[in-house]
Amino acid sequence: MHFTSEQRLDGDVLEREFTLGEVPGILWTPEPASAPEPAPLILICPPPLGLSRIYPRLAARARHYAAEYGFASATIELPGSGDRPRWPAVEQARAELRRVMEAGGPVTGEIVDALVLPLVDRSVPEWRAVLDALLAVPGIGGPVGYEGGIISIGVRLAAVEPRIAAAGLFAGSFVPAAIVEEARRVTIPLHVLLQWDDEAGHRQASLELFDAFGSREKTLHANMGGHTGVPQYEIDAGARFFARHLR
Predict the structure, then answer these.
(1) Measured between alpha carbons, how far is 167 from 160 in angstroms, rounded to an integer?
(2) How far from chain centre, in Å, is Cα 194?
(3) Which residue segments constitute the domains of the chain, with CATH numbers given?
(4) Distance between CA 30 and CA 71 in Å, rounded?
């Protein structure tokens, strides 16, 4: 891992940009980073919109985690997003999805698989490699939480990565049938957010995914409103969820 820049936010949060191979990311750590007790770590998976576009939202959450709970946080640029090389196959799948939705046609399993599964297959190994590097940074230790973004990435990572102790998942994106089956192997505590009036209309699929999770402790928080209308108090509830399981 190579750190490329650093700055202090609010005086007591250190923000460092990094690269690991071709993967860029950002790490936020509470000060002092060399405290005797290593900080728990939360991996924040962004939507595939480019980190520069959603940086204010990510940085605000990271500052909150650091100031209120002493957590470190990190995010990475997803494949095909931001300044990373374009990914023609996924871009073609997105274009096909837009075409079908604009025409009012059914979104088939084949379209969902082509859109989501390649991203999951490539992203999860990158997240695991980044996690290896982050846990070697002085001042950072376990346990590790995950939250985000594209729920299928979170399902796969929670199923295969034993260092993930708890996950906050945002429902509302398309989920392939294969990922629903993988969800049955997820047994860690879960905090799942669902916007009841999500414009993409994934409510029933999200409920079926929640039902499939094998976790004995899983909580679904459903709120009225569209995809981007998550109430602020739900972000606070998610932070308290991590405080219970990472401290």
Answers:
(1) 13
(2) 15
(3) 2-246 (3.40.50.1820)
(4) 7
Q: Which residue has the tokens 């999860």?
A: 124
Looking at the chain, the whole-number percentage of residues with pLDDT higher than 70 is 94
Measured in degrees and rounded to the nearest 5, phi and psi for residue 240 equal -65, -35
Q: List the beta bridge partners of residue 41.
A: 72, 144
At a CB cut-off of 8 Å and minimum separation 6, what does 211 contact? none
pLDDT tens track for 120-159: 999 999 999 999 999 999 999 889 999 987 899 999 999 9
Q: Which is it for strands 140-148 and 190-195: parallel, antiparallel or unpaired?
A: unpaired
Q: Which residues pair with 166 in a beta bridge?
A: 145
Q: At what angle do helices 88-102 and 109-134 cross, to 10 degrees?
A: 140
| Cα atoms in the 13 Å half-sphere on the side-chain side of 78 | 25
Q: Chain-centre distance of CA 24, in angstroms?
A: 15
